[in-house]
């Protein structure tokens, strides 16, 4: 077996299940899960219909590169959403469909890392999406964590990283808006990492799957390709962005997304994926075209999240240290006393509400930046989110 399998740590939800084992929540309270970022809003009807209409695609082998119509739909969406120069994004050269960002983020690291080099590193925010860590280990590299705390507005301080670390870096993961913090990178952040990538010769993988959940319609979060365009970097050199329909369109079960960026990177990644055997089914591609071509359902989705954040923060704002994130659908409150595991366990035991301890999303790196926080995913209905917030408030007040 691959010896690096031994490096993989238990997934956060495995740890959460162990934490809750032996508890007996009150049976008269329905369970409300705020622990997993699985959207619960209705899937768009036109996407479901597009899949039904394409059911004949079951008799056809899909190509790894995907339908030209899908890549064109993605290119059009990227140009509209991120204000890219007309013609700067070639659907033939710059875009690949993927079966959700999770598999693509993992696979991209396998394609990018040169494990023959001495002690290669994959840099990642901390707290983080655990796929980044697993991808690094199984590619023969080691993860190096960049702490994101309230003191740095949950955005890594790239200038604090020693030169010897950058010299070993082969891949830098960005997550903007951040999971779990909701922090959004600014143009100056992107400019700095691009400068560092050129200086030290590494690739930037920007996980942007939460980019379409934000609060101000006039100020959508910036993405890496948009930053490239603003900086005159129209070849997107060293850059790859990852987007998904899971959060944007409430389609986590569709397993549909894309990777886009540097044409040379896409050519190499396509070669890897051809052997990987990960072509997207044709009917999923047709459904994805319908989703990427429509913005009305996305705007309605954002409005639902705004209402939930308004209601929940109104209930919890004066009993917890919590604030509205820049974007995304997570709250990242601090817990009184700092014991996030005890908070999550006791909250479930007493109020039948599940949240995720922040330490489960972090690693030790001059401290555990997630410790003392819990992650709350406001993915349930407005009614359930309000009820959960009321129970959490009662739980917190019982300990004052």
TrEMBL record:
Every Aminotransferase class I/classII large domain range: 32-392
Protein keywords: Aminotransferase, Transferase
Domain of life where this protein originates: Bacteria
Name of this protein: Succinyldiaminopimelate aminotransferase
PANTHER family: AMINO ACID AMINOTRANSFERASE (PTHR42832), L-GLUTAMINE--4-(METHYLSULFANYL)-2-OXOBUTANOATE AMINOTRANSFERASE (PTHR42832:SF3)
InterPro entries: Aminotransferase_I/II_large, DapC_beta/gammaproteobac, LL-DAP_aminotransferase, PyrdxlP-dep_Trfase, PyrdxlP-dep_Trfase_major, PyrdxlP-dep_Trfase_small
Gene Ontology MF term list: transaminase activity
Cofactor: pyridoxal 5'-phosphate
């Amino acid at each position: 077996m691959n010896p690096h399998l031994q490096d993989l740590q238990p997934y956060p939800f495995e740890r959460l299940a162990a934490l809750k084992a032996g508890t007996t929540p009150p049976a008269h309270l329905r369970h409300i899960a705020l622990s997993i970022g699985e959207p619960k809003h209705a899937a768009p009807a036109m996407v479901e219909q597009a899949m039904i209409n394409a059911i004949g695609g079951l008799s056809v082998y899909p190509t790894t590169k995907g339908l030209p119509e899908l890549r064109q739909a993605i290119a059009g969406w990227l140009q509209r959403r991120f204000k890219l120069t007309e013609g700067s994004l070639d659907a033939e050269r710059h875009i690949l469909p993927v079966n959700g960002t999770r598999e693509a983020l993992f696979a991209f690291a396998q394609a990018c890392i040169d494990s023959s080099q001495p002690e290669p590193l994959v840099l990642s925010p901390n707290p983080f999406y655990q796929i980044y860590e697993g991808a690094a280990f199984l590619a023969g590299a080691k993860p190096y964590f960049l702490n994101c705390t309230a003191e740095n507005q949950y955005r890594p301080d790239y200038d604090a990283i020693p030169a010897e670390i950058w010299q070993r870096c082969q891949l830098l993961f960005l997550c903007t808006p951040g999971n779990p913090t909701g922090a959004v990178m600014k143009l100056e952040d992107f400019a700095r990492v691009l400068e560092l990538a050129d200086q030290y010769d590494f690739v930037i993988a920007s996980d942007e799957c939460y980019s379409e959940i934000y609060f101000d319609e006039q100020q959508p979060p910036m993405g890496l390709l948009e930053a490239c365009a603003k900086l005159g970097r129209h070849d997107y050199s060293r850059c790859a962005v990852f987007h998904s329909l899971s959060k944007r369109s409430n389609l986590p079960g569709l397993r549909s997304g894309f990777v886009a960026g540097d044409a040379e990177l896409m050519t190499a990644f396509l070669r890897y994926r051809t052997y990987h055997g990960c072509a997207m089914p044709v009917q999923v591609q047709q459904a994805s075209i319908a989703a990427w071509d429509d913005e009305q359902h996305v705007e309605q989705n954002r409005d639902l999240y705004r209402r939930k954040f308004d209601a929940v923060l109104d209930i919890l704002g004066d009993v917890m240290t919590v604030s509205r994130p820049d974007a995304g659908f997570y709250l990242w409150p601090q817990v009184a006393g700092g014991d996030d595991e005890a908070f999550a366990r006791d909250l479930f035991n007493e109020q039948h509400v599940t949240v995720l301890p922040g330490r489960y999303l972090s690693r030790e790196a001059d401290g555990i930046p997630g410790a003392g926080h819990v992650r709350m995913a406001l993915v349930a209905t407005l009614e359930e989110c309000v009820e959960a917030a009321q129970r959490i408030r009662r739980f917190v007040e019982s300990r004052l």
